[in-house]
Amino acid sequence: MWQAIRRWFDPRELRSVGSTPDYRFSLANERTFLAWLRTGLALVAGGLAAAQFLPPLPLRHLREVIAVALLLLGGAVAVRAVDHWARTERAIRLGEELPVSRFPAVLALAVGLGALLLVAAVLARAVGGGR
């Protein structure tokens, strides 16, 4: 694990393996990394917005649970992004298959489940008279 983390911060180590790839592949990998980073930032912003602007919800502390879940998910996406970038760059340099990941499916399911829970909370509030 520490070796993987060191790889994130030491470009010399990453460049010491394999051969220099076509720069377009490295740039595409970087664009993908930046897209994941934007997703993480959006989740963090959503968590802050939930904490600050959501009204009290029918279940006690639900607003805080939503905010913390979004903040943690945003942080996880950012960390996962840099790890995937480094593993992909290494695979490109070594001419290996690109690393596969279940993370996009897990993230999609988490966001979908979160949306369903929010729909349930909104409906519960509407049925309860908007307390």
UniProtKB/TrEMBL annotation:
<keyword id="KW-1133">Transmembrane helix</keyword>
<dbReference type="Pfam" id="PF02656">
    <property type="entry name" value="DUF202"/>
</dbReference>
<keyword id="KW-1003">Cell membrane</keyword>
<feature type="transmembrane region" description="Helical">
    <location>
        <begin position="65"/>
        <end position="82"/>
    </location>
</feature>
<feature type="domain" description="DUF202">
    <location>
        <begin position="24"/>
        <end position="91"/>
    </location>
</feature>
<keyword id="KW-0472">Membrane</keyword>
<dbReference type="InterPro" id="IPR052053">
    <property type="entry name" value="IM_YidH-like"/>
</dbReference>
<protein>
    <recommendedName>
        <fullName>DUF202 domain-containing protein</fullName>
    </recommendedName>
</protein>
<keyword id="KW-0812">Transmembrane</keyword>
<feature type="transmembrane region" description="Helical">
    <location>
        <begin position="33"/>
        <end position="53"/>
    </location>
</feature>
<dbReference type="GO" id="GO:0005886">
    <property type="term" value="C:plasma membrane"/>
</dbReference>
<dbReference type="InterPro" id="IPR003807">
    <property type="entry name" value="DUF202"/>
</dbReference>
<feature type="transmembrane region" description="Helical">
    <location>
        <begin position="103"/>
        <end position="127"/>
    </location>
</feature>
